Amino acid sequence: MLFSKKQKKTRETYHVPTHIAIIMDGNGRWAKKRNLPRSAGHAVGCDVFERIATYCRDLGVKYLTVYAFSTENWKRSQEEVLAIMNLLRKYLDDAVNTMEKKQIRLRFFGDMSRLDADLQEKVRQAEEISSRYTGFQANICLNYGGRDEIIRAARQAASKCMAGEWTLDDITESSMAELMDSAYIPDPELIIRPSGEVRTSNFLLWQSAYSEYYFTDVLWPDFSPKDLDKAITAYNGRSRRFGG
Ligand code: IPE
Ligand code: IPE
Ligand code: MG
Fold it and tell me: Which of 1, 27, 118, 202 is buried deepest, with most CB atoms within 10 A?
């Protein structure tokens, strides 16, 4: 069930965003409510990602960017970090088959150099193998921070200038955008944060300049296609002026 009757009527005027971004938050609280270890929340969160990615693809969304692990999340207990990394390992091992079945291109945003070597290699392989699928792309943010991304881009720009490849005038909004992890991908029209927190937590700082935000109290492991419909409906009611 995709649209309500009323929504079906206005289907022609209903705009599905090209790029949706989601801060997948609330796994820990979901687990706590059930007296389960936090890792159980992350495991269910991983399945929900699969389900929502497939739903986005079916809706005609072109890009889905999800926040899976931030540059700040290393501050968590060693046990929790290890559980998340092992979940990622398992996800990447399965990803090759899943991506083929679903025809999903996978890309990873963030600084992969801090991940274990085997994980870096699995990430590289998943990107390479899925690069032939052009219909829908999921970007997974791992060891990602918006500030870190801007710093990495600034360093690249500075080294181009020092090498004489660029002059200062070559540093523009569009040339900097191409140095971000999201190079050549349009900015997200809609950013969703479940779990009741109302902050960006260092997500897509550069790309979110004119994104519409949607916040909901639903915890990520409970987030369903219906909740995504609600977010898209809210987005459709927004008046985007871009300062004009
Ligand atoms: C989001 O869920 C997943 C990661 C940050 C890895 P949390 O683990 O932050 O869950 P809460 O916010 O503590 O409920
Ligand atoms: C943001 O959630 C990061 C991810 C969902 C991966 P956090 O749970 O880490 O953010 P804070 O601590 O609530 O700001
Ligand atoms: Mg959280």
Answer: 27
